Each structure stands twice: as C-alpha cells, then as structure tokens.
Amino acid sequence: MKYSALLFDFDFTLADASEGIFQSYEYGFSKMGLPLPARDAIRQTIGMTLPDGYTYLTGDTDPGHRSEFHDAFVAMADKVMVPNTRFLPGAAALLETLGQRKIPAGIVSTKYSHRIVDFLAGLGKSDLVGCVIGLEKVKAPKPDPDGIRLGISLLGAAGPVLYVGDTTIDARAAQNAGVDFAAVLTGTTAREAFSAFPYVYIAEDLPSLSRWLFREETDGEEEPRELFRTATEADLPDIERLGAAAKDTLTAAGIAQWDEFYPTGEDFREDIRAGALHVLYRGGRLAAMAALDEFQLPEYREPDWLYREERACVFHRLCVAPALQGTGVGKDMLRQMDRLARSLGYGAVRLDAFSQNSISLRLYESSGYRRAGTVYFRKGKFFCYEKKL
C-alpha cells in the first residue's frame, strides 16, 4: 500500500453513534421548548458542528440560542453517547490490519476527543489509533485542514496520507489539507455528491475499502473495476497520453479536429486547476475524460436552444481511449457526467461536436442529446447539442 498513514472521520465512517446523537438532540430541543425534529433530519446533521446542526434544523442563527443548544446537547451526550456507540462492520478489523502492517492510523472528528477515547478504551481498543483529534484540539472544524495536518504531524507520517470520511465536509477537508481522500457510503451522503471533489476511491463499506487498500496483497487484484472522479495533477501523465492518442486516431481517420493547437497540456492543466476535468478509470487505466463548466463561446448565442429557462452547464473535451471506443465507455462517461451535472444543480447540458466526427455524433444522439444548431470554429462546422437533465 502506498500510504504511510491513514486518518479517519469517526461518526458514520468508523462508528455509528446515531442513537446517542438522536437522544441528545431531542433533549436539547425539548429543553429549549422546541418541537422535536425527525430523526431522519437529525441524521443529516451528523458530521456538522453542534451549533451548525441546530441552525440546519431550525434556521435559527442567533448565537445565544446556538450556544444554549450546544450546552444542552453536551449535558445529555455525557450520559448517553459512549454507551450508544458501536463500531461499524469492518472498522475494528481494518484498524487491526493497519496496526499489523505498522501503518499508523488516527481519527479526526468534529466530535469531542474524550468521547472517542472513552469508546475505544471501553472496548480495549485504544491501541488501534495513534491519535484522536476532536473539535477542542483544533482552531476551526472541518473542512478547515488543521485537524488533518495535526494528525499527520502526530503520526509522524513521512509519505502520502489518506483521509477517509463519509461526507462532503470530509472530502473538502482532505482537499484543503492536500491529501488523498476515500469516501465510504456508510453515512447519508450519496455517491454522486463526491464527484465534485477529488477522491481516489468510493467504497460501499469498510470491508470493501480494506480490500481496495490491500489489493496488491490479494493475488494481484486490480484497481476498482470503474472509478469516476475529479481529475488531479497526478493524473496529468495519463491525461496527456490519452489526448495524444486521440489526436493520432482522429488524424489517421482523416478527421481534422484535435491538433497541436487544441487541446494542449495547458488546457488540461487549467481544467484541473478549476476543478472542471473529470476522469473515468477502468481496471486502473484512464478510459475517458471530460470537462464541465459554464463557459460558453460567443458562437453559442446562435443555436436554437430549447431549454433556455434551465441553468445550463457545458461539456468540453470529451475523449474516450481509442482502444475502448465501441465498448460502451463513451455512454458510461456521459451518464456519469450527466449525473454529476444534475447533482450540481444544473437543469440542462450543452456541448458541440465536430461535424466530421461521426462517432461522436452517434454517441450524443444515442444518449438523448438533441441537435440545437450549427456553429463554425477554426476547424469548420460543429453541431451543437443539448439535453435536459
């Protein structure tokens, strides 16, 4: 495994403390004379700070009320939190496996440290983690990177570090700290929500995360069958190779579309810096890539767009590995991009395709995209397409 240390969120990542959280929320609301929130609504606050959770449920931003709720919650949590906390399936086994391999592990949470420390001590598992960093040990809560950086320092990690969490708050914290992120779908956050952030893997649960982490030790198991995520600088070599292969394939087919002027390595770098470029890996190899943003060239004023009332994004530079064309990768990539756009609040997608590239035209038309008009760029005629999400 390439990581020198792993850091974990706690609630809904390693453990389920929801019953204690429910009881503490209900006590706090009752003490303040407020209607009790539904438990499903409370569940959505797990991972937030207590004042932010209160505001999320009530809309009340009054500092005094936020503080009053915090104190009431803590008073009840001191009684019910630890007895009502359980490891999630596979959590103890994963931490034990890391320990056996001398890979240090730690916890970075918005929970108070003593609750996690007491929980581990009660199970006789204190030795499974090298540090526990709770809310009281940092200057600011996640997504501020202070907790992760402190964890890296305390663990003495000299190489790459992976942060594992179940919310987009965790994903943003990892991004801010400059470390790799792996998501587990054991909380309330949907898989699609993580597409807006850099990640190396999304696991259904901790056992599947463990299998991925130690895949090199399990009969040479390959990378996850399919992985769609936001591109990072580390992907640039793969991206530039795919771009070059696509140019060569188009040229050999007599399609004068991509050339030495477009797209360039700098185009891809700008996409990555903007968080716009997304990649699809299959079997550990880059299978497709595309960018998503709101930039529309002046020529986009010409087509007869049908969905003008919708907030629209634009797909750029969609590219499928030449060896995988005709295998369904292109359609899969479009489905992933459509899903991502929908999760970001867009109601429609726009794009353009070179009129001589019949493969691209068939792909878009068979994927539900409607031809909206014709524009002309440096290379000639392009057809514009749109799709309502």
Quickly list its features.
Rossmann fold; alpha/beta; 389 residues; globular; six-stranded parallel β-sheet; DNA polymerase, domain 1; Aminopeptidase
CATH arch. level architecture of the largest domain: 3-Layer(aba) Sandwich
What would the CATH topology of the largest domain be?
A: Aminopeptidase
In total, the number of strands is 15
Compressed to H and E, one letter per element, the order equals EEHHHHEHEHEHEHEEHEHHEEEHEHEE
Spatial strand order of the main sheet = 9-10-11-12-13-15-14
Q: C-alpha Rg, in Å? A: 24 Å
For the biggest sheet, the summary is:
7 strands, mixed
Protein name: Phosphoglycolate phosphatase, HAD superfamily
GO molecular function: acyltransferase activity, transferring groups other than amino-acyl groups; phosphoglycolate phosphatase activity
Domain N-acetyltransferase: 226-389
InterPro entries: Acyl_CoA_acyltransferase, GNAT_dom, HAD-like_hydrolase_sf, HAD-like_sf, HAD_2, HAD_sf, PGP-like_dom2
Written account of the structure:
The chain has 389 residues and is α/β, with parallel strands linked by helices. It folds into three domains: 147 residues, Rossmann fold; 67 residues, DNA polymerase, domain 1 (Orthogonal Bundle); 156 residues, Gcn5-related N-acetyltransferase (GNAT) (Aminopeptidase), CATH 3.40.630. Helices cover 37% and strands 21% of the residues. The protein contains 13 helices and 15 strands. It has a seven-stranded mixed β-sheet. The longest helix is centred in the N-terminal third of the chain and has 18 residues. About 2% of the residues have low confidence.
